[in-house]
Structures are given as structure tokens and as C-alpha cells.
Specification:
Layout lengths: L2 H5 L3 H19 L34 H37 L1 H15 L3 H11 L6 H25 L3 H8 L4 H9 L4 H24 L11 H7 L9 H28 L7
């Protein structure tokens, strides 16, 4: 049985993969089949779902379906880009710390412990205050706040592997530090890294949406899900669909990513792969 078939024996893997595939497909082809998310028809404001507007309209008469489809690009990008940013920094710090150990390890881990002492959302807010609100600022801020988590994970993997016999054999054959790190240690650490990265996408989507909700991310009229949710605060009684729709979108997306991450964890864990 192929690895793909084994992986997709898990119902959670199938559900997560289907939902994420649909979301990705929507972000790619959806904008070609919808009206402009910025077109304002004030006389149509705060309308509920109808044949003309399947998800209703917002407080400016803009089509909610169009805004949600375009907003999916920003929200999914925020999750993926911030994880890639945090993983890149964490891989550098964790690899150096786990491979060399000693004084370098202690200093880097002290720095990570200091950063981990702050809630990630507060640290992201502090970073944005240094920069300025915008579409890409939350991605950078959330990515920086996740560097300590990835650093400690990769450090732990490297420290568990660096004394193994295959590393000693490669070192005795003349392999240098870079070859040992990128050819031997890092490939054998990919399982936990992939799982953590997948699960981190969901929390990064929430963090980026939270920052936009607080006015520290994408700014109106950008149709980012957190921004759409923020603009709905004034209309919870007269236009509840404005809050329900982006809230459900964020929830479903995060659940799908977490289901896929759980399935990856079970698949990559040799203790549960065969169960």
C-alpha cells in the first residue's frame, strides 16, 4: 500500500485535506467568478443572504461572498507565510544551538526563554507597534513570535540525534558541520518539524485575524477575515451574518488544518502508524 493511501486511511486526514483543498481552490479561481469585493451599493447594506447575494451584504452594501473569497487569500497566506518565517528563523537558531551546544546553546536558549515568557499575541502586538499596521505586518509579527517554539523543537531533535552512530560515522568520514546538519541531522528531524508547522498554521491564522480584529493588521477596506469580523461589531443585532460568516470561516479553516496536523502526527509516529 502506498504511503499516500496509508495516510488517507485516517478520516481526519481526508476531512482536513478536502476542506483545505476546497479553500485553496476557492482562493485560486474564486475571484474570477465573483463581483468586486469593493463595490459599494449603499441601498443594499446589511441585507441577509439572498439569491443576489448568497452570503448577504455588509454595512456598505458590498457583497459578503466576494469579500470572503478574496479574504481567504489574505488569511491563508498569513498562516502559511508566518509559519515559514518562524520556521526559517527557528531552524537557524535551533540547528546552531542543538549542534554546537555549550555556551552558544545556553545563550540562545536563554534568549528563547525570555521570548517565550511573553504571550505570543502580546509579543506580536509589540512588534507591530515598532513597525506599522498593514497586510504583511501580522505575518512578520506572528512569524517572529513563533521562532522560539521552532528553535526549541529543532534543538531537541538535533541533541537527540547528534550522538548517534550514523552521525559519528559521517563525522569520521570527513563530513563537515554543514554537511552533518543539512545532509544528516535535518532530514532525520523533519517528522516533528512538519507536524508542528502544520499545527502552527492554524494558530497563526487565528493570531493574524486577531491582530486585524484589533486594528493592528490589514486595514479597511481590505477584505481580510479578521478585518471583516471587526467591522461587524457594530451590527451584531442588525447584521449578525457579518460576524457569523467570517467567524465560521476562521473556525472551519483552523479545524481542518488541525485535523490534517493530527493525521500527520499519527502517520509519522512509528508507534501509531500501523494501528
Amino acid at each position: 500500500m502506498s504511503a499516500v493511501r496509508v495516510f488517507f486511511r485516517s478520516p481526519s486526514a481526508v476531512i482536513g485535506a478536502v476542506i483545505i483543498s476546497i479553500l485553496v481552490l476557492i482562493t485560486i479561481i474564486g475571484p474570477f467568478f465573483i463581483q468586486s469585493p469593493f463595490e459599494q451599493i449603499v441601498v443594499n447594506k446589511l441585507q441577509g443572504p439572498s439569491r443576489e447575494h448568497l452570503l448577504g451584504t455588509d454595512d456598505f452594501g458590498r457583497d459578503m461572498l466576494a469579500r470572503m473569497v478574496v479574504g481567504a487569500r489574505y488569511s491563508l497566506s498569513a498562516g502559511i507565510v508566518s509559519v515559514l518565517f518562524g520556521l526559517s528563523g527557528g531552524m537557524l537558531v535551533g540547528a546552531v544551538s542543538g549542534y554546537y551546544g555549550g555556551y552558544v546553546d545556553r545563550m540562545l536558549m536563554i534568549l528563547c526563554d525570555i521570548l517565550l515568557s511573553f504571550p505570543s499575541i502580546l509579543m506580536a502586538m509589540g512588534i507591530i507597534m515598532i513597525m506599522e499596521p498593514g497586510i504583511y505586518t501580522p505575518m512578520v509579527a506572528v512569524g517572529i513570535s513563533s521562532i522560539p517554539t521552532f528553535s526549541r523543537l529543532i534543538r531537541a531533535q538535533f541533541m537527540a540525534l547528534r550522538e548517534n552512530s550514523f552521525i559519528e560515522a559521517a563525522r569520521s568520514s570527513g563530513a563537515g558541520d554543514l554537511r552533518l546538519i543539512f545532509r544528516h541531522l535535518l532530514p532525520n528531524s523533519l517528522g516533528p518539524i512538519i507536524v508542528e508547522s502544520t499545527l502552527k498554521i492554524g494558530s497563526s491564522i487565528i493570531s493574524a485575524a486577531s491582530l486585524s480584529f484589533l486594528g493592528m493588521g490589514a486595514q479597511p477596506p481590505t477584505p481580510e477575515w479578521g478585518t471583516i469580523l471587526s467591522s461587524a461589531r457594530k451590527y451584531l443585532w442588525t447584521g449578525a451574518h457579518m460576524a457569523i460568516i467570517p467567524g465560521l470561516a476562521i473556525t472551519i479553516t483552523v479545524i481542518a488544518v488541525n485535523l490534517l496536523g493530527d493525521a500527520l502526527r499519527d502517520y509519522l509516529d512509528p508507534r501509531t502508524r500501523g494501528t
